[in-house]
Amino acid sequence: MAIKKRLAYLFLGFIITSASAEYRVYQYYIKPKTQNLNGETARLVTSTLDPISYAAYNGGSLSLEVNLLRTWQCFGNTSKKYLCSMSEGTELEEVKK
């Protein structure tokens, strides 16, 4: 019985240490659809939110026009880090609408 427990711990330890992390970064060109009181104009935004989530989180598709420019994937330990740059990640091909 003790051998089975040791093998189980060894197996779990192997799985945990071999795990890797990654995340996807999106770059958008954001343009307000309505005239803002603060005079906000179009801007370039880099985020980990996908286009639909970004628009929903920032006022909805009725108030923002979100155009996806590019996307890339960042690998490795992602805890407590800023977004990686395109040169550090791997650019992904997207179907642009």
| H/E series | HEEHEE
Overall number of structural domains: 1
Largest sheet composition? 4 strands, antiparallel
Question: How much of the sequence is in beta strands?
Answer: 25-35%
Large-scale geometry: elongated
Number of helices: 2
Low-pLDDT runs of 5+ residues are none
How many strand segments? Answer: 4
Structural class by sheet pairing and helices: alpha+beta
Helical residue percent? 10-25%
Rg calc: 20 Å
Arithmetic mean of pLDDT: 78
Arrangement of strands in the largest sheet: 2-1-3-4
Distance between the termini: 59 Å
Q: Could you characterize what this model shows?
A:
With 97 residues, the protein is of the alpha+beta class. It has one domain. The chain contains two helices and four strands; from the N terminus they run αββαββ. It starts with a helix and ends in a 5-residue tail after the last strand. The model has no long low-confidence stretch (mean pLDDT 78).
